[in-house]
Each structure stands twice: as C-alpha cells, then as structure tokens.
Amino acid sequence: MRVDWSLPAWGWPLLCVAAILCVVWTQRAYLRADPPPRRSVRNWLISLRAVVFIVLLLALAGPMLIHDASRGLPPEVAVVLDDSASMAAVDGPQGASRWSQALRLAALADSVVRARAPGARVVLWRGNGLQAAREIRRRDATDPPVGVGTDLKALLREAVTAAAGRPLRAVLLVCDGHDTALDGGAAFSAPAGAPFLAVGVGDPVGPPDLAIQELRYPEVAYQGEEIAVEVTVALRGATAGTVARPRVLVQRDGQVVAEATAAATAREGVVTFEVPLRAPVSGLLVWNLDVEPLVDERFLANNRATIAVDVRPDRARLLLLAGSPGWDARFLAQAANRAGRVALSVVHPGTAGAVLADSGRAWTSPRDAAGWHRWNGVVLLGWSRLEPLVDWPSLATAVRERLGLLVLPGDDAGGNWIGPPRPLAALLPVDSEAAFWLPGDWIAQGTAPQAHSLLSGVTQDVTAGQGLDSGRWPPLRAVLTATVRPGAQMLLEAVQAGDEQGTGVPLLVAGRPGGGRVTWFGGRRLWELAFWEHADPSGGAVSHPGRRLLQNLLLWTATGEGREGISLTGHRRVYEEGERIRLEAHWRDSQGNLAATRRPLTLALRALDDSAWAVRSFALAPVPADSSRAAVTLPPLPAGRWAARPVANGTPAVEGPEEEFLVVPQAIEAAQTRQDRRALRALAVEAGGAYLGADVPGARERLAAAVAGWPLTAAAQPVRRSRDLSAGWPLLAVIVILLGAEWLLRRTQGLP
User: Fold this and answer.
1) Number of domains in the chain
2) Nearest-5° Cα angle at 384, 378 to 387
3) What would the pLDDT profile of 454-469 be if each residue is shown by its tens digit?
4) Does 533 share its domain with 637?
C-alpha cells in the first residue's frame, strides 16, 4: 500500500510556501485576538486552524491511496466440436452418431479436468469456422449439427481468441477431420504452453461403398452436339462377397435420358465409362447423375452428382442478301471466316430468281417472321435488284422481334440513290428519304461517348469510342448523307479530309427497333476498308481496323456481342452447398487482349430461384500475379441457381455478361463417409499437438490419461485498488471535526 500524488515535482515548493504562509497568518490572527485566550488554548487554536489549511493544501496535491494485490484465475480448457452436418452421420448399423460420440468424449474430458482442478473452467464450443461459434449450453447440447462446410483452423482460432486474457491451459478438438476450406488459410498453433489434442470420431475405413470418384465433361457445349460425360466410380471397403458392376442413370427434368453399365466388375477398385448426352436446347442445362447403390449401402449421397453445361447456340447464322454481288460480298465472306463464330450464306439475283451463291440452287424468301428466324441476322447489301425477290414486311416483323439487320446501301444502282424498301425504312437508325451520295475524300472518326462492341479493336480506347486512328483508314470516296433518328447511336462519322473540325456525315449508326438491332454503314465500297494496307513506321505488326470492323459488323448483327470489356473466367458451373466459391474476372482491351485495369471492380450476385434475395455486391481484389485479373471468394451460398455479373465502376460503368452457376444441396457434407485421419494428423503436427483416434481400443482411457497430464495451474492476475483521498466524505469529515473542535475552544474563551 502506498500513496501517490498527482502534483508535479515543481509544485511542491509552492505548496510548502503556501502552507508556511497559512500557519504564519493563523498565528498572527490569534495573537491579536480580543479577549486574548490563555496561552495553552491559543496554541491549540493555532494548531487546529493550521492543520485545516494543511489538509486543504494536501488535498490540492491529489493524494491517491494505492493498494496492489493479486487474485487467482482458474485454469481454462477449450473443447471445440465440429458443428457441420457430416458429424450427424452414423458409422455403424446400430452405432451412435459422430456428434453423440463427440459429446461423450467432451464430457469425459470435462470430468477429468474438474476432478484434477475443481475450480477449472471447461468451455465447450460448437461451430464450423464459417459461421460464428457458440458456447454449448445444456439445453442445446443435443441439437443435431446442421452446418454446411468446415474450416477447422478458423474454428480453432475463434475459440483461442475468445479466451484472450484468461489462462487457456489446453485445447481439445473433436471432429471427423473433414475440412472444406478452399485453402489452408492462416496456420493454427496452440497458445504457448497449452497442449493441443485432436480427437477423430467416425470410422476411418467406412463400410462397403460405391462413390463417384471423378466426373469429367465439357462445361461449355453447343446446341445439338453430343456431350461425352466420363464417370469414374470407385468401390471402397469391399469384402470377399462384394461384387458390383456400376450402373449409371442420367436424368433431366425427372426423365431418364441416358444410362450405362460398366463392362468390368469393380472389386475394391475403380471403373471408368462414358455416358453420351445431347443438348437439345441452349442455356445452362442441368442433369442428375446417379450410380445404383450396393445392397444395404448406407451412404448414398456420394452416388449422386450434378452435371451443368453451358449450352450455347450453334454458330451464328447470317444471310447476306446482295443486290449486286461483288467485292463487298467477297470481303464480308472472308470476314465471316476470320470471325469463326459466323456461318454466312450469300443470296443474290440469278437469271431465274434468287440463288444461293455457293451452290447455285434457287432460294425462296420466307413469307413470315418465323421463317426469317432460321438465321440470327440478315445483311442487306443493296436492294435495287432484290425488290421483287424478298418479302420485306415479314423481314421487318422479324427484325422488330429479335433479328439483327446490317444495312449497307452499297453501289448497286450505279451511283444513283434508291431508298430502302418501305417496310424497312422505318426500322433504320437514320432517315434516308432525302439522302444522296456525296463524293470526295472522307475521313472516318469516332463519336461514341462510351464503349460499343462494334468498335472493339477499331478504336484505341476501350472505355469510349474516341481514339480512332484515321491514318490507318483509307479515305472513303463517297458517303451517303442521312439524318440520325432520335434514340439511335452514332458511332462513326465522316468528315472531309483536311477539315476534321467541320460538320460530319453519319457513317456508322446503331439502333434497336423492338427486340432486334439494326446497323447502318453509309460508306461506298466497303471492301476498300479491308483491302487497304498501312505501313507501320515502327516496323511492328499493325492491327487492321478495317478488317476488324467488318468482323464486328457481322458479329453484332448475329449475336450483339463483343469481346472487349470485363467478363468472368475460369469458374465452374456446379458448386456444393457450404463450399467457398472463388470467381475471377478479367479485362480485355479494345483489341481483345488481356489488359490491366485501374478501375475498381465489383461482382453483382443475384439468386435466380429466390426473388426475395436482394442483389448483393462483392468487391473484386486484384490478383497479385496477374494485373489483368481480379478475384473474390464468396461465402457459402444456399442451394439454387445463381447469376453473377462483373462490373467495372467508373464513368461510364462497364458491365460484363451475366454468368449462371448452380449450388447443389449439402453434397459436400453428406459425401464425408469416413474419418479423415490424414488431415487430423497434419493439423495436429502443424499446431504442435497430438492426434488420437476415437475408434482405437482404449481410446477413452488414453484420452483421460492425456487430459490428466495437462498443466491445469491457476494464474495470478494483478489487481490494483485505488482511492482518491482528496474527494469524498472522509476528507469532509476530517475538516468538519477540526473546525468543530476549534469553534468549541473559541466559545470557551469568549471568542466570536
């Protein structure tokens, strides 16, 4: 016990001077008192008054009474139980569940600890490392484990962190050893001096069991083609009488669509065979694959798998209607071959009507919109000689529904302008009623305020339509004057050579009438754009913007897609409930090449099966090894269909295509049929502890012996108590007593 003062050292001389002055003043006051008190009484009066002044001055110095002591903290033991659904499995015909085994082992450890150290505190935790762990109370100890997924290291770190500041003397983990974390995460090590023991529950061998060991299939396919699914089925824990020829059934929408039986017999081995599937429609198609179980097979969840394939339409089909076949049609066909994703059919007038250019067979125009929808888009290259050969009203209806249309006025009328067919005129993104060909040397330049797929690889900036290198374009010999309609988007304009600041003529304009898309290119002799060669002064390879524009025109007409911008990459189509999902996005520049982006990227996630689930955003973090990629690990998601879209934030924001994936229910837990001793041993070595299998003979005795050897010593915690002597009733009582005694003496001497 001691007294500390808050008065700094330099204040004590001043305090002493003040005390001396107070004593002198008191003495002089009583020497002049009238009537003068007796000498002995006067000395008492002076002493009492001086003591009051000194007490008050000492109170100003801030005296603190400090009492340092210590108290004992009881030792603490953390018992951690895996609360994932695999712990509910029963490992024998009449056996107990892994959870009930874990509770009995935890109760044994608790009884041994309390017998050795009655004041010890045993804290039982249940959790899976993915959701917050909770302390087990008596009322919820029997609640079955239902968590999906396990991160054992995170669970252990959570239990150790909760005991911060208390003497944690040992950590006991009871689980089946299955860890579903994508990566090992941060390493776990037990606190210094605290033993760590991992106890594994569950049968480490398991009963005879058929399981899908490996499933391989293409995650992307095209409509109508055959999908080869390769299945590897393993038979584990075979006995002398176990014989199996695995049979696989594949179902879609409750109907069996394929089946196969392995030619070989599996006896403690694996069998691999193929199951052919066919994709009848496009979209994300889902099949359920089931392996017929063995007789009395207990674990059936690993006999089932989900197949999800992103089925895309066949190569986009384009129809080129050429009023006058020539170089433009030839170079458009070459552009379709370079694009790879487009099948182009060319129709032109023949001697007896319209014919297909590749075969010379007669071609008959569809008479309704459904007939035109056999193609994904139509390219109209002039129309003066096509007027009686094409049913224009039905074509216009198809465009309003969803068909793409590329209009190239061309030069089939010998330089004279003839307006488009009337049913199509209202669909065009330009008003060409009063248009005419304007000759001269015209230079193309970009005008779009934001990115567009038609300009992918044509301009130099992916975030805007600006940056067109006109020096790499040939001058256009003539352009068609037209007026851009409201709602249409002008992407390129043509200006007179040498007058780049002058008024331009719309050159490339895009619009969307109804559900379709229409593109207008108002330049003559389109083939010159692809034929033109420009020498690179640096000697390197030059991307050819003219040829790229031809490809973009065809791709946009057929699919409306481009290759620039942000998109997801490398993700799977099927995940299991409880699994952490890692999604990556990459950025392609206007040339279609991977490039770094400085924009902040996010991922918009929505549930397709749950309209009440709000769209949530997750930040994408750059991948250190690759500046063109960014990644995010999503939390475990409930079962269902999900859609994710990458977004590059900024002005303007750039959105990537939405990708679907599937989360199947709890397969990740139900397939854990055995205790994973290897994982538990590895965890014990990393944590500096030991592993004990609950299935071995004498496991309970070995556990009790291990717990009995733990250092269950209490800890001394310093405790400091302090009291402010300058405040409160004690100081006031002392002053009142002193002043009261002085007043009584003064009254006895007749002093006022």
Assistant:
1) 5
2) 70
3) 776 665 443 333 445 5
4) no
